[in-house]
Specification:
about 325 residues; Phosphorylase Kinase, domain 1; 2 domains; five-stranded antiparallel β-sheet; 9 helices; Aminoglycoside 3'-phosphotransferase, Chain: A, domain 2; alpha+beta
């Protein structure tokens, strides 16, 4: 059965409507998840997003949509349901479609909107008794990824297919990991300065849209597979200026965020936030390096290796802001 047919079959199991999709469009096809747009399949003929991913990740998003997001003081995408595949380790999640304009960290209104949205997420999340239902996203989680990144990089550093420039990139990342490991006590102390809360975990432009509603802008984040209970630093990462053609960082306006959080977390100052944002960038880079370095020994290592240059730059920027470069 074609995977598009699998999407339609899984959707039909929810029995929400008798309407099949008018058309199925592939939005993303990756090694860890595949995302489809089911045109006309939802209530009233609205489009539905069908996401097929590993069960463990899908279950995280299921908890968020079923038990957490609906209790927050801001709107979230419609949630239609979860379907487990009977064979294998995959599952389907069906949600509404975020049809707004792409988020851009170069647009001041967008970064201010993101900051206000995060202030609601972090303050409301901290007050909810949900820690036991969410995966850990504290510094210990990323310390494990740091160790995994070091192991993988050392294992594959001698790959004869790598050029001298490739090896230099990997060696630089290894040194950056060593610097972070040496300062990990400071990392943990900084993370203890702010309360743990619900975090999105991958607050990047690719995972957000901005919708205009009654002349107001509404942020629509999605892809909660990296979310959990941890430090808000994860969601505060800033892009280096000037912005390049590719930007993986949401760059919420830190001044707007601080003003919105002053009552809840009055001890936060601008310097603290900049340091938190740097840690958030380092955490995300460590996660990506650990995950993608697993494939550096495969015949198709080119893309993971190319991405290592991006993570090297991100770690360089984070270490500079932290004062550890």
């Amino acid at each position: 059965m074609a995977i598009e047919d699998l999407a339609a079959t899984a959707w039909s199991q929810l029995q929400l409507t008798r309407i099949g999709a008018e058309r199925i469009q592939v939005l993303k096809k990756g090694s860890r998840s595949t995302v489809y747009r089911l045109e006309g399949a939802g209530p009233g003929g609205v489009p539905v997003i069908a996401k097929r991913s590993r069960r463990a990740q899908a279950l995280i998003e299921r908890v968020l949509y079923e038990q957490v997001l609906r209790a927050l003081p801001m709107a979230s995408l419609a949630y239609y349901g979860f379907v487990d595949e009977p064979i294998g380790e995959l599952a389907w999640l069906f949600i509404g479609c975020a049809d707004g304009q792409p988020y851009s960290a170069a647009i001041r209104e967008h970064t201010a909107l993101a900051a206000r949205w995060l202030s609601l997420l972090h303050t409301a999340g901290a007050a909810m008794a949900i820690a036991a239902r969410l995966p850990d996203r504290g510094p210990g989680y990323y310390r494990e990824h740091l160790a995994s990144a070091q192991r993988n990089l050392r294992l594959h550093l001698g790959n004869p297919a790598f050029t001298d420039a490739d090896v230099a990139v990997l060696e630089t990342i290894l040194k950056q990991c060593e610097v972070l490991a040496c300062h990990w006590g400071e990392v943990e102390r900084q993370c203890e300065e702010v309360p743990r809360t619900l975090v999105h975990g991958d607050f990047a432009p690719k995972n957000m849209r901005v919708r205009i509603e009654h002349a107001d802008c509404v942020l629509e984040p999605f892809d909660w597979g990296s979310s959990g209970w941890g430090t808000p630093a994860l969601d505060l990462a800033q892009a280096a200026l000037p912005l390049g053609a590719r930007n993986d960082w949401g760059s919420p306006d830190l001044d707007v965020y601080r003003a919105a959080m002053c009552d809840a977390w009055p001890r936060l100052d601008r310097q603290d936030l900049e340091f938190c944002a740097a840690l958030g960038k380092a955490f995300r880079c460590l996660y990506c390096v650990a995950r993608e370095s697993e494939y550096l020994g495969e015949p198709w290592f080119e893309k993971p290796l190319l991405n290592m240059r991006i993570y090297r730059s991100g770690l360089t920027e984070a270490l500079q802001v932290a004062g550890w470069a």
